[in-house]
Amino acid sequence: MTATTVYSLSEITAHARKAARGAGFAWGYAEEVAQAVRLLAAHQLPGAVVLAAYLAERADTMVFCGPVRADDLWSAPEPKSALCPVLSGAMLFDDVAVVQAEQGLVLTQLAYPLLLLPYIALLSQRLGCAFQLNWEAIELVCEQGRLLRIVEETDTALLAARTARFSCRVLAVSGVGVTAGQRGQAISAAVWQGLNHFAQQTYVPATEASRRGAGPAN
User: Fold this and answer.
1) DSSP labels for 83-136?
2) Residue 178 has what DSSP assignment?
3) At 78, phi and psi to the nearest 5?
């Protein structure tokens, strides 16, 4: 049986922020990642699991990049590359008109699609509308930052490392969302340690000068 620990949303947020920064993201992006993982954790979705997997793969390859835009279709610039969910999410905030268009938006070759969900949920809150999202076996509706429903939820689809097609379109409906009332989430030791591997990269190595200043004051 895998050992797990229940961490508070604040602990998860701080750890995700340090992990993203340690993996090479600028602090601004790291903060966005942290808030994304926090929202997923509040809905008991495996954001920490997916982030740990993404950062580990990102450390070993340079295939992740921002999208090339062609109207309502966003794709990776090269056949062997994949869309970074963090950069794609940030670009959505810079181009909200495309996600509000009647025909919707499609992203192809998207890596770790679950990490893009919080960005769209926050956009639904910012724009005051609802969005329907589809990838793999997932059909999800969010409104005002709240999760409305997941259809055919499966671990395989939620944890997917790639999806050939991620679609997003505006819905002209208003539902009663599920408030993210959870204050913490159980996370396995392996996942937490995976994030900690990157979080440790944010620590400043000790020097002779710092060691001389350490210890109790006289």
Assistant:
1) E-HHHHHHHHHH-HHHHHSTT-EEEEEEESGGGGHHHHHHHHHHHT-EEEEEET
2) B
3) -125, 150
DSSP labels, 52-85: HHHHHHHHH---EEPPEEETTEEE-SSTT-EE-H
Q: Where are the domains of the chain?
A: 4-175+185-201
Res 152 pLDDT > 60: no
DSSP state of 26: -
Of 212, 209, 202, nearest to 15 (Cα)? 202
- Beta strand pairing call for 138-143 and 146-151: antiparallel
DSSP string, 146-171: EEEEEES--HHHHT-SEEEEEEEEEE
User: pLDDT tens digit string along 87-123?
Assistant: 999 998 888 887 787 788 999 999 999 999 999 988 8
Q: Which conformational region is residue 7 in: left (phi greater than 0), alpha (psi within -120 to 50 degrees), or beta? A: beta
Would you say 187 and 48 are in contact if contact means Cβ atoms under 8 Å apart? yes
Q: Which of 35, 34, 32 is nearest to 17 (CA)?
A: 34
Query: Looking at the DSSP assignment, which residues form a beta bridge with residue 107?
Result: 74, 166
Q: Which two tokens stand for residue 204?
A: 């400043």
